[in-house]
Write a structure and sequence with these properties.
This protein is α+β, with helices and mostly antiparallel strands. The protein has 18 helices and 16 strands.
Length: 468
């Protein structure tokens, strides 16, 4: 009679019996370890193994699913329906990770003992996000962990997305504390079955229904947040997102549409183009430059930094529009031809392409030095801060009182918050030889903000165009 182990060996060449060989050997303890069986590489069994692994993971909660098992799932080995199951599983896992991150963020904020609340800067640098985004992340996480347990539970279970949780969290900020629990119970009942848009509508209705007496108060509070933003987009364009009261916004749009209809029928522009051009004309003509206050020592204007070689049409290196970023050489030349603007010349190092130094002995920088630093840095020196230069001030990297010079090598643009963040906090920064700013936090972590290369190394000079 053939031994059991011999029978297993004789069947190894056949796929079906290979399965039996693996199972029996494991049961009889003939294998010291249970490796990934060779038969899984057979196309038939590889597909079945992937499907079985998916089935076993689907019944587990997100916290119990091993990452290695998730990574081992091969979509090409699954059926169409199983791929949908895998998509849902991965979404649940991402939501679970978002809940875990929220708990970490809440703990970071709770542990922040700095007077300025520098936890947002710590998170901003660690995750490479703008400080305002970090601030919002911390506030949302704190709300979820401390005030919205049901919402956090749904996120942990993977039933709602991080964006769903954020909508609920932000809406709760508009309600008195005593109404938050009832609000959460109302909106989480169906949150797992709603799209983000559907949930947003439910949240808005719940906020009004729970606090109808103060609806007008909330509206006036919202009006305090009205604003005009600046959002750079591709191809030398920007968006100006405007937040207004619904009635005012609707009226502006209606009037722009009516004015566009007065233009000749032969005008080739689209209705959207007409409305946009009419808005530009209304703002630029209605706010005369001479009546406006100075910013960074000069009247409000746009600034374009461009090399002389580009202006002379010797190359097509991009120019730099302050507050926006790179624009095409041809766009810079068109601006240069506008006689309403002025030019100021700045020299660059032909070996590095960097602007040459300007220095002085006084604490307050001269206008020429302020122009130079503004042209060089464009935004706040903090690596993740995008505060535009006109809202920043010249900052002595080494304090003037400690012997720091008023010069390019010791100067930077810094917004008020990040200027103050160096005062008795353990935070500091330096200017690297390559023009980058290296910030060191109180925890000892260092982060480098690298400025873009705006000038070609072969260019001998650069200029700043400023519109009047």
């Amino acid at each position: 009679m053939t031994s059991c182990s011999g029978w297993i060996r004789s069947a190894a060449s056949r796929p079906v019996l290979s399965v039996a060989r693996f199972i029996i050997a494991s049961m009889l303890g003939l294998l010291d370890e249970v490796p990934e069986p060779d038969w899984l590489e057979h196309p038939v069994y590889a597909e079945q193994a992937t499907a079985d692994r998916l089935s076993s993971l689907l019944v587990l909660p997100p916290a119990a699913r091993p990452t290695a098992a998730l990574a081992g799932l091969v979509p090409e080995r699954l059926s169409a329906g199983e791929r949908v199951d895998l998509l849902r599983l991965l979404a649940e896992q991402r939501n679970w990770l978002a809940a875990a991150q929220a708990r970490v963020l809440a703990a970071i904020e709770d542990g922040d003992r700095t007077e300025l609340g520098l936890a947002q800067e710590e998170v901003s640098l660690a995750l490479t996000v703008p400080p305002r985004t970090a601030q919002s992340m911390l506030k949302t996480a704190h709300t979820l962990v401390r005030q919205l347990p049901a919402t956090l539970g749904l996120l942990t279970a993977g039933k709602i997305s991080e964006r769903h949780a954020r909508v609920i969290s932000e809406a709760s900020w508009r309600l008195p504390t005593e109404l938050v629990a009832g609000f959460e119970a109302r909106v989480t009942e169906r949150a797992g079955q709603q799209t983000l848009s559907q949930l947003t509508q439910s949240v808005r209705r719940a906020v009004i229904a729970l606090d109808p007496a103060t609806a007008e108060v909330r509206h006036r509070r919202a009006l305090a947040d009205r604003r005009v933003g600046l959002h750079p987009v591709e191809d030398g364009m920007v968006e100006l997102p405007v937040l207004l009261g619904a009635a005012e916004g609707q009226l502006i749009f209606t009037r722009l549409t009516a004015a566009a209809c007065l233009l000749p029928a032969t005008d080739p522009r689209t209705m959207d183009q007409k409305r946009a051009d009419l808005l530009v004309d209304a703002v630029l003509c209605g706010l005369p430059d001479g009546a406006l206050p100075r910013m960074q020592g000069r009247r409000p204007a746009i600034q374009v930094v461009v090399s002389a070689d580009t202006l002379l049409n010797l190359n097509d290196q991009p120019a730099h529009l302050t507050g926006y970023g790179p624009i095409t050489a041809q766009a810079a030349r068109r601006l240069a031809a506008d006689q309403s603007g002025t030019w100021r010349r700045l020299l660059t190092d032909p070996d590095t392409g960097q602007l040459l130094d300007i220095s002085q002995q006084h604490y307050r920088p001269a206008q020429r030095l302020r122009d130079y630093v503004h042209a060089r840095d464009d935004t706040c020196a903090f690596p993740t801060c995008t505060q535009p230069g006109y809202r920043c001030e010249y900052d002595h990297i080494i304090p003037f009182a400690d012997g720091g010079s008023t010069s390019r090598s010791n100067g930077a643009l810094a917004c008020r918050r990040h200027n103050n963040s160096k005062n008795n906090t353990g935070w500091s920064y330096t200017l690297g030889a390559d023009g980058s700013f290296i910030w060191t936090t109180s925890t000892g972590h260092s982060y480098r903000g690298r400025p873009p290369q705006r000038w070609d190394k072969l260019s001998r000079s650069s200029g700043i165009y400023q519109s009047r």
